[in-house]
TrEMBL record:
Residues 16-165 form the SprT-like domain. The lineage of its organism: Bacteria, Pseudomonadati, Pseudomonadota, Gammaproteobacteria, Enterobacterales. It comes from Xenorhabdus koppenhoeferi. One of its GO terms (molecular function) is zinc ion binding. The active site is at E79. This is Protein SprT. Zn(2+) binds at H78, H82.
Length: 166
């Protein structure tokens, strides 16, 4: 996969926002938190990922570049909240009450579980399969499983096996 270079001004904006949110958490809990490393290695339609044991936040560079400030305002606190939740409460439900508490009370951000950004530019190739009653869109991963004979997919409506049109 070709890596996408995040412009320096965006990297700086990410770090500024992260440090500001980290300071909010430090003030709230009256303790210093280590600064997590931030990388731009997240792929696909996922905006970000918190790696708890590595104390790392992975961000999707394409979605960051396309959405800039909205991405920074929504995704960065979301992922930081996962790290802070783990630090303060240990293992907890990924979007459970502890995480919501960190998001809303500590970081003062809406506790949204998913982003609403357009993913057209990062969406993988879609393959159209057919059954007796309609067409189905399968991902490249599903398509490759069919080609390798590892999976077959059945229509939930008519019960027929999905096939590529001839």
């Amino acid at each position: 996969m070709k890596s996408v270079r995040v412009p320096l001004f965006l990297q700086q904006a990410v770090m500024r926002a992260m440090r500001q949110k980290l300071a909010q958490a430090s003030n709230f809990f009256q303790k210093a938190f280590p600064e997590p490393s931030v990388t731009y290695r997240q792929r696909g339609t996922i905006a970000g990922c918190a790696r708890l044991q590595d104390w790392e936040i992975r961000l999707n560079p394409i979605l960051l570049i396309e959405n800039q400030q909205a991405f920074i305002d929504e995704v960065l606190p979301h992922e930081l909240a996962h790290l802070l939740t783990y630090h303060q409460f240990g293992q907890a439900a990924p979007h459970g009450k502890e995480w919501r508490f960190i998001m809303e009370t500590v970081l003062k951000v809406s506790a949204n579980r998913t982003h609403q950004f357009s993913v057209n530019s990062v969406r993988s190739q879609i393959f159209t399969y057919c059954c007796h009653c309609r067409q189905h869109e399968l991902t490249i991963r599903q398509h490759n499983k069919i080609l390798r004979g590892k999976s077959c997919y059945i229509c939930r409506q008519c019960g027929e096996k999905l096939k590529l049109p001839k």
